[in-house]
């Protein structure tokens, strides 16, 4: 899990044709603090981040504004019945992309293989959208742009389909050579089809820590990304949709250690017409930062 995020993101999913039920803007405030144990004064940095998501009924393109003008674009393109591309742009230049293909209940994402349950595979192939794909990749088990995927997985209060994964085979690039290391991951579900454990041996462990009957959601995650980063954190979401993360991280090359906390507010949702999206974003920006 990455520690640093840009200060302000305005996220918009804008279809290329007008949505019949308008466009939804979802606003989330994040308060976070971070302390480096390597600093002699052990100082804590604090800040507040505002995220605004703009969602149309066709979730195939995302613009992420880091300021009112600077933007990152995330786009899902359907290339054929069984193949897609998941592209990430910064100032109109591609800086990362994932190739996706479907065959025989298997989903291929670059060099990784995801084995889905049969009913999930059909829905993935025929009705894939960005939020559903981001949810499936939320554990960031492969070489993915995990900061962007984490942003898409915030609780926006927007409905999307979930897919059940049986196992995955992830091939991770070595930072020191052309070698790739293979890791098998297994998913386990409770009676309500919620994930209660994800195991990628020697690299990633996610365990649900609250009871099945509890309406809240809590996970404890431990990870070890070899020569890059290791750490652990706890994630929780209550019945109001408020999310909290608390954890520690060690950046391996520099041996810098961090403690951090993040709290995400319940989303506030507005409905606007396509023609008034820019006007509403500007109004939210002025209100939040004047």
Walk me through the structure:
Helix content is 13%, strand content 50%. The model is unreliable at 1-20 (pLDDT under 50). The chain is mostly beta strands. It has a 17-stranded mixed barrel. It is globular.
Give me some keywords for this one.
globular; single chain; 290 residues; mainly beta
Radius of gyration: 19 Å
Helix count equals 4
Secondary-structure element series: EEEEEEEEEHHHEEEEEEEEEH
Which residue ranges are poorly predicted, with pLDDT under 50 across at least 5 consecutive positions? 1-20
Estimate the strand proportion.
Answer: over 45%
Q: Describe the main β-sheet briefly.
A: 17 strands, mixed, barrel
Average pLDDT, rounded to a whole number, is: 85
Question: How far is the first residue's CA from the last residue's CA?
Answer: 32 Å
Global outline: globular
User: Helicity range of the residues?
Assistant: 10-25%
Write the layout of secondary structure elements.
Layout: E1 9-13, E2 23-36, E3 44-55, E4 61-65, E5 71-80, E6 83-90, E7 93-103, E8 106-109, E9 112-116, H1 118-127, H2 130-136, H3 146-152, E10 165-173, E11 180-189, E12 195-200, E13 204-208, E14 217-224, E15 229-237, E16 243-251, E17 256-264, E18 268-272, H4 277-289
Parallel strand pairs: 1-3
Antiparallel strand pairs: 1-4, 2-3, 2-17, 2-18, 4-5, 5-6, 6-7, 7-8, 8-9, 9-10, 10-11, 11-12, 12-13, 13-14, 14-15, 15-16, 16-17
């Amino acid at each position: 899990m990455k520690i640093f995020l840009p200060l302000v993101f305005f996220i918009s999913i804008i279809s290329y044709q007008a949505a019949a039920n308008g466009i939804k803007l979802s606003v989330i405030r994040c308060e976070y603090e971070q302390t480096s144990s390597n600093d002699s004064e052990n100082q804590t940095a604090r800040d507040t981040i505002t995220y605004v998501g703009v969602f149309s009924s066709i979730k195939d393109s995302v613009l992420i504004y880091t300021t009112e003008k600077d933007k990152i674009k995330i786009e899902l393109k359907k290339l054929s019945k069984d193949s897609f591309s998941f592209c990430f742009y910064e100032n109109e230049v591609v800086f990362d992309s994932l190739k996706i293909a479907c065959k025989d209940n298997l989903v291929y994402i670059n060099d990784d293989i995801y084995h889905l349950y049969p009913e999930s595979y059909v829905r993935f192939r025929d009705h894939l959208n960005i939020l559903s794909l981001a949810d499936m990749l939320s554990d960031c088990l492969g070489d993915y742009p995990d900061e962007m995927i984490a942003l898409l997985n915030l609780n926006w209060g927007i409905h999307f389909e979930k897919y059940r994964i049986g196992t995955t085979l992830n091939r991770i690039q070595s930072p020191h050579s052309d070698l790739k290391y293979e890791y098998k991951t297994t998913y386990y579900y409770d009676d309500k089809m919620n994930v209660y454990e994800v195991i990628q041996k020697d690299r990633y462990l996610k365990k649900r820590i609250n009871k099945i009957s509890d309406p809240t959601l809590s996970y404890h995650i431990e990870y070890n990304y070899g020569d890059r980063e290791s750490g652990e954190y706890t994630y929780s979401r209550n019945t109001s949709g408020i999310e909290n993360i608390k954890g520690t991280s060690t950046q391996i090359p520099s041996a810098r250690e961090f403690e951090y906390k993040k709290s995400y507010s319940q989303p506030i949702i507005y409905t606007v017409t396509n023609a008034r999206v820019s006007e509403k974003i500007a109004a939210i920006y002025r209100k939040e930062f004047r």
